[in-house]
Amino acid sequence: MPHDFPQPVDAAEVPRFAGIPSFMRLPIFEDPAQVDIALVGVPWDGGTTNRAGARHGPREVRNQSSLMRKVHHVSRIAPYDLVRVGDLGDAPVNPIDLLDALKRIEGFYRRIHAAGAVPLSVGGDHLVTLPIFRALAAERPIGMVHFDAHSDTNDRYFGDNPYTHGTPFRRAIEEGLLDPRRTVQIGIRGSVYSADDEAFAKECGIRVIHMEEFVALGVEATLAEARRVVGDGPTYVSFDVDVLDPAFAPGTGTPEIGGMTTLQAQHMVRGLQGLNLVGADVVEVSPPFDLGGATALVGATMMFELLCILADALAQRR
Ligand code: MN
Ligand code: MN
Fold it and tell me: Which phi and psi (to 5°) does residue 135 adopt?
């Protein structure tokens, strides 16, 4: 077992409430070449159309991530023994200029990608996934398993504005970053702007699994369908916490009732083990709307779930 890999601070030596809260209590790195998986915060919510606050997500998820331990209790994956994982800090952002923020975020991820590290990010609103894709998918389009109450494939807001957290995946498809035929959206629900709201997603071939179909299929059949859609090509996992029922994740900008339980979401992410994963994120944790850190704890725990399948994927590729 490689003992020189970065390890979380030992909770038997320094209690979990002490010290500076990095993601998973891991060391902080500036050079992405020193890690295989880069944990990154993107404290930006300039794409939010209604209830802002996800800019505060990374700091609070770092805080709650101090509760995470080192080994997954079901898969027994021990990510810190498989690969080098570190906290790369926050991507640079600009809270008063959307286009400049997108540029800064993309530049940060280009550096990570060029160093050969795989990013696992915490937003921020869902628009942050677009500049991440611009860095990761510049060479070829990627597939995606997308957990969300919303399709995020709308076109324009407030006149002719193309960039909001309701539009990232339409832009990513237009820019050739995301392959819609290798994209599956799971948990979609809630009232929509018009009856043909999903026309774009359907026309370009995205597999949309509404919450009602997820319930009818169950976890295992939904996983089989998701794995069929993305196949063995490069795949990103994007986890919007509003896929969860607000009973489990109230601290988010666009809550929709009738969502997944945390346990269903955990089973879904675990079931993605073995895919050809190239990155993942947890977005839309909004501490100002949270209750006692509950949603940030969900974010941190889903981040650990994602970290385990990412570390396993990297170890398998070696
Ligand atoms: Mn979203
Ligand atoms: Mn959403």
Answer: -85, -40
Give the predicted TM-score (pTM) of the model.
Answer: 0.98
Ligand 2 centroid vs 166 CA: distance in angstroms?
8
Residues of the chain under the 70 pLDDT cut: 1-3
Where do the H-state alpha helices sit in 55-142? Answer: 57-64, 79-82, 98-114, 129-136
Instruction: Give residue 15 CA to ligand 1 midpoint distance, Å.
Output: 35
Determine contact, residues 64/296, Cβ cutoff 8 Å: yes
Both tokens of residue 238?
Answer: 């994007």
pLDDT for the residue 196: 86
Helix (H) or strand (E) holding 238: strand 235-240
CA of 282 to the centre of ligand 1 (A): 10
Which are the contacts of 174, defined by CB distance < 8 A and separation ≥ 6? Answer: none
Helix (H, G, I), strand (E, B) or coil at 182: strand
DSSP-derived 3-state class of residue 181:
strand
Q: How far is the CA of 187 from the centre of ligand 2 (A)?
A: 9
Distance from residue 134's CA to the centre of ligand 1 (Å): 17
**Homologous superfamily in CATH for domain 23-317:** Ureohydrolase domain (3.40.800.10)
Indicate which ligand has the atom closest to the C-alpha of 188: 2
Taking the centre of ligand 1 as the mean of its atom positions, its distance from the CA of residue 18, in whole angstroms, is: 33
- Calculate how far, in angstroms, residue 141's C-alpha sits from the geometric centre of ligand 2: 22
